[in-house]
Amino acid sequence: MIAGIMTAIGLLILLWMFEPWRQTVEDVTDCVRTDDCEDVGAQ
User: Fold this and answer.
1) What is the pLDDT of residue 43?
2) How far apart are CA 37 and CA 11, in angstroms?
3) How far apart are CA 33 and CA 25, in angstroms?
4) Pairwise CA distance, residues 2 & 6, whole Å
């Protein structure tokens, strides 16, 4: 039971930490896929 609670807390912390990176990863993926990199500031 304790291991399950610790796992749930760990998953919530990971979701909270990586949420800001989701948009950045999507922008970089679109840049690579469509070769339109002005949105992410990369050239």
Assistant:
1) 53
2) 32
3) 12
4) 6
